[in-house]
Amino acid sequence: MNRRRRSTAFLAVAGLTAGLLLTAPQSASAANLIKNPGFETAGTGDMPYCWEKSGWGDNDFTFTTTADAHTGSKAMKVELTRRVDGDRKALITESAACAPVVTPGKQYDLGLWYKTTTPDAAITLFRHDTTAGWQYWTDLKTLDMAGSWTEATVRTPEVPAGTDRISWGVSVYGTGSATTDDYTMDQVPDPVLPPECTGTAEQCANGKWDVLPTQNPVRSMHSVVLRGGKVLLIAGSGNDESMFEAGTFTSAVYDPANGSYKVIPTPKDMFCAGHVQLQDGRVLVMSGNKGYPTADGRIGYQGYKDSYIFDPETETYTKTNDMNDGHWYPSATVLGNGDVISFGGLREDSTGSVTAELFSEAEQQWQPLWKVNQTWSYWGLYPSMILMQDGRLFYSGSHVFGNNIPGTGSAIYDYDANTTTQVPGLRNKDERDQSASVLLPPAQDQKVLTLGGGNIDSNPEANRLTDIIDLKQPNPAYVAGPPIPQGTVDLGNGPVPQTGNQGKMYVSAVLLPDGKVLETGGALHNRANPVYETSIFDPASETFDPVAVDPEARGYHSSAFLLPDGRVMTTGDNPGNGTWNHDVSVYSPPYLFKGPRPQITSVIDTEWNYGDTQRITVDRPVAKAQLIRPAAVTHSSDPNQRFVDLPLSVDGDNVDLNVTSNPNLAPPGWYMLFAVDANGVPSVAKWVHLKGPQALKATDASAHVHDFADAPKGKVTGPGKKRVSQKVSPTVSGCDRHYGSINVCVPTDFPAEVKKTTAARCEWLKANDYGRLKVNGKDDPLGLDRNRDGTACGKGDLARR
Hints:
Elements: E1 9-12, E2 51-56, E3 59-66, E4 75-83, E5 87-92, E6 108-116, E7 121-129, E8 133-142, E9 146-155, E10 163-172, E11 176-187, H1 201-206, E12 208-211, E13 222-225, E14 231-236, H2 241-246, E15 250-255, E16 260-265, E17 274-277, E18 283-286, E19 289-291, E20 302-303, E21 307-311, E22 316-319, E23 333-334, E24 340-342, E25 352-353, E26 357-360, E27 365-366, E28 385-387, E29 393-395, E30 411-414, E31 419-422, E32 436-439, E33 447-451, E34 466-470, E35 479-480, E36 488-490, E37 495-497, E38 508-511, E39 517-520, E40 523-525, E41 528-532, E42 534-538, E43 543-546, E44 559-562, E45 568-571, E46 584-588, E47 600-603, E48 607-608, E49 613-618, E50 624-628, E51 632-633, E52 643-645, E53 648-651, E54 654-658, E55 669-676, E56 686-690, H3 693-696, E57 716-717, E58 725-726, H4 758-767, E59 773-774, E60 791-792, H5 795-799
Parallel strand pairs: 48-56
Antiparallel strand pairs: 1-2, 2-5, 3-4, 4-11, 5-10, 6-9, 6-11, 7-8, 7-10, 12-46, 13-14, 13-51, 14-15, 15-16, 17-18, 18-21, 19-20, 21-22, 23-24, 24-26, 25-58, 26-27, 28-29, 29-30, 30-31, 31-57, 32-33, 33-34, 34-35, 36-37, 36-41, 38-39, 39-42, 40-41, 42-43, 44-45, 45-46, 47-49, 49-54, 50-52, ...
């Protein structure tokens, strides 16, 4: 997991103002927004007017205004003769006099002529934020080697909100030179045709939900969108003790093309396992349920060490080597080199695992303990560990069950240095149990949204909080986002409007191909009181737009995920009474009712490398294209979900897509490729394969790692004392096992509004359809069996005061 970070260092600034010029500036053409695009006008010092030297790292370099020009008498040559790391680039001067003015929400076509003697050169953009000042924006295009003058063009993404100017140029990050000339920059014209509503006014504004006619045959709590578009639904025992005792473990493969399900033999109880997609599209499934808690409360859930790989081609599971520890509820994050790192969960003895695990892509097996860096930290259950652009991991604070980790509740983990740095700003950090966190579109922006949550131990009403962090900042910190919109909540007598600060836990967040985020589902309390509310979050404006609502309850053990046709599928709901919702819903977002969809009529090559330019053809103009990593989601958690922008070079119906050179932004694997028109209408996805370690050998991602999160000021800790495990209460799931069967969850702590009396608690259980509850053993910690007849909430219990 190699990572290198450096701060961008500007070497000199020339041509600061027109008043310092020795000659009058060369004017740009009517369309061209760049001043001195051909370097013909001299500036102060040794750089042309409106151009400056920039770069970082350990390298030897020269900047030369050369007579070897494409047109006119001058061009700019940047050469590296020795390089350990870093880059050098000639940029448009970052000043009001020189940097082109841009409009947020607009796109711009950039062009230049170049010659190179190195394959390591790329068009790099910086933007001026009206609040934060100049900052790195993105790398747009890797330049192919060229011995004669060659034209390069590329279209920017939409300019982010708060941006008033941009600066750009060619960065050289390998030994050799790039000579450039005749820069151009034009604003892309607005689309001529407004969107055409093809549904009802309600559908065009808010989308539409459909409950599918065929039910999900298994109690699935894990959902993985497979390469090609089928969906793996993993149940294991499905939180059903009778299935566990019988050794009946199930999965199903759903085919959206025909609505069919195929039940798959499943070798172990993968209930509450971890899962992630490997670079070849197979699914790594780690740990699961070795045993349910005992009725006497002395032993909790136990996680086994077993691990399996599911092959989408054969639709079968194959065992891998064992992990070093048991991990019931583990994290699973794929890294830029294709390896997988995992933290947290419960061990075979039901204590908390402090062992970090590493699955080697090259060796196709879990590494022995001595090969894996360890801090001996307990990260909790399903900790949301998101890969950052420099290879570090951001723990967002989203997790499952009870309180968060000590400290601020959020942190940056540096595997290479084996250090953890706390990150501030996450509000109500101990009430983010089953919140959702997502890397916002595009991944290049490095912003994370965390929303909702509660606490199954103290059982407060779930919150409406959202917090946003910008990991591009030197000292990143969460800031408050807009509250989640309120919907209705079923408190036991049918849905009623939410009031006060009522929000939701078990919330799902799904990246959409138009660059927005769908949030849906959830519940007000631990496995009770479903919330009916769905909204679309716009990262550009940081606002929510309430839309049509899933008619089905989607609380604990529900999943939501993007299908290749642009719809969102939701499954499951497992309330505390042990029942299961087998109905499946599918949401068609408003963009599917805005007129004809663009089509990707051909993909020249489906095997992609980092830094590639890949050509597609489309049947109508498109404004953007992106890769979306297919879902592998459970318990509100999918830390690998990401939307990677593909800057365009457009020539009629031919569109060249510029693939990122940084594998940490788009880890190797299969992706859904969407093309989206100016009205936000996406194509149906095509599947492309971003190649793994073989393709990485020729790529130096360090040049594309800029000064993100390079100076966090939070408390830093290194490896702690080696230990076996973290003590975890057997009631970590928030369920008192003294009552009912194992798949029934009587809360250890009832909601705050429920009085601590037998009558009030029994009334709440009745309203939430718990039915008859047997008392397991002689203990009655909640006072539900006052007459000690072995049945909770019987008539005799309610008669006693």
